[in-house]
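Local shape tokens:
==================
===
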Amino acid sequence: MLNEWNHYNASSGKFVCAVPGVYYFTYDITLANKHLAIGLLHNGQYKIRTFDENTGNHDVASGSTVLQLQQSDQVWLQIFYAEQNGLFFDPFWTDSTFTGFLLYADQEYLNEADRKANA
């Protein structure tokens, strides 16, 4: 797992924004033998939801979005129908991914950081 600057908290499963700006998030979740209803939340509000009706084989549920984040904003994945939890887990097979990265930082934040660095 790549977690530069430790903005992703593996214990909570949440990304916590340290640098305000525009971020890209994507997920690919492997499911097995059941349906999966999962969504991406930003500060507790669903931004996208994915429902995948499993046909008896392994399948992948995917989603992606672009979000404007402020410092301390949180982004995470959450199953929204517990009975639809076909999430596949195998500690030796890391097939599901949750990815987020900064596209560009907020200009005011960069200007302030530059002023502090040159003070």
Observations:
- The chain has one domain: 4-117.
- The beta strands are 8-9, 14-16, 21-42, 45-52, 58-69, 74-79, 85-87, 97-105.
- The domain at 4-117 is CATH 2.60.120.40 (Jelly Rolls).
